[in-house]
Amino acid sequence: MNICVKADREMVANGKIPDKLKGAGSFLMKVFGALAGKGPKRVGALYVTCQLFKVYFKLGTVHLCRSVIRSIETARVFDFEEFPARDRVTYMYYTGRLEVFNDNFMGAEKKLMYALRHCHSSKRTNVRMILKYLVPVKLSLGTLPKEWLLQKYNLREYLNVVRALRRGDIKLLRHALHANEDGFLRSGVYLVLEKLEQQVYRRLMKKIHIIQKLKDPARAHQIKMEVIVKALSWLDINMDVEEVECIMAILIHKNYIKGYFSHKSKVVVLSKQDPFPKLNGRANIL
After folding, report:
1. Coil/strand/helix, residue 208
2. CA distance 91 to 97
3. Which candidate, 73, 156, 195, 234, has a CA 20 to 30 Å from the CA of 204?
4. For residue 164, is it within any domain?
5. Is 251 within a domain?
6. Cα–Cα distance, 160 to 176 (Å, whole number)
7. 28: exposed, middle or buried (C-beta count within 10 Å: 0-12, 13-18, 19+)?
8. Which among 42, 116, 30, 52 is positioned nearest to 79, based on CA atoms?
9. How many domains does the chain have?
10. Which domain holds residue 265?
11. Is residue 221 domain-shared with residue 135, that is, in the same domain?
């Protein structure tokens, strides 16, 4: 594949239309068809599939992966666990990335965790590549990684994202996204991380609830909109009551918090039982 990429670059430099990588994809698809039948040759099908994934991701034609995935995952002639571990890890890594793009975080977690568990620990570069996508998936599902893990695998771009989620700090999250915008966009995880704002608002609400519970336990479940506006102001986030109402409506609708808000009284009334339910059925680590 690297040779095709270099050839395409030379063609572009010479004013020609690059077609070598695309041609390699077409050739590999024919090879896959020859290997996918019954017999000992099919053991090479997964390796060719992984090479196709690399080509399609490089070309930006990931939708072409679907037909290959269908052949691998539905054909009875394939016993996935019989393929070499190297190919199984690569396959799960790419299909996990596809699930991230489709916002199927439960499916992405399953595939990427498989890749991580079966990837040899000595292959640090490969482990880092898997974690690069597994971390935002875990964050979306409400699980925060330890900072030592991010430091160990040089994933420092996620450090402030995780800290923002722990603190309920909207400003810090936005700063982290802005500072690493180019890298997140290239990886295709920017939009995934941007959606974490709702979890950060949830964490902020929980902090306000805890503080209010210490001051006035009897009325801890009633949070005035102006208190939320003031808390956001301390974080240098300027919002009016109407904007905060919209955010509360989204959090309640998505079951990030349980309760309701009174537009007339400008108050959020939290449920007295489990006002901050588990995210996606997970342990509520926020």
Report:
1. helix
2. 10
3. 156
4. no
5. yes
6. 6
7. buried
8. 42
9. 2
10. 197-281
11. no
Q: Are the C-beta atoms of residues 149 and 130 closer than 8 Å to each other?
A: no
Eight-class DSSP state of 247: H
Full DSSP string of 61-130: -GGGHHHHHHHHHH-TT--GGGS-HHHHHHHHHHHHHHHHHTT-HHHHHHHHHHHHHHS-TT-HHHHHHH
- The kind and range of the H/E element at 286 are none
Number of Cβ within a 10 Å radius of residue 212: 18
Domain shared by 30 and 137, yes or no: yes
Same domain, 43 and 109: yes
- Residues 108 and 12 grouped into a single domain: yes
pTM over 0.90: no
Tallying the residues shown for the chain, one arrives at 286
Euclidean distance between CA atoms 141 and 115, whole angstroms: 18
- Average pLDDT across each block of 10 residues of the chain; the chain has 286 residues. List them in order: 58 58 68 67 80 85 82 68 89 95 93 96 94 96 93 96 95 96 94 94 92 83 90 91 90 91 86 84 42
Domain boundary among the residues 124, 141, 158 is at 141
Cα dihedral across residues 38, 40, 43, 44: positive or negative: negative
Contact 156, 150 (CB under 8 A): yes
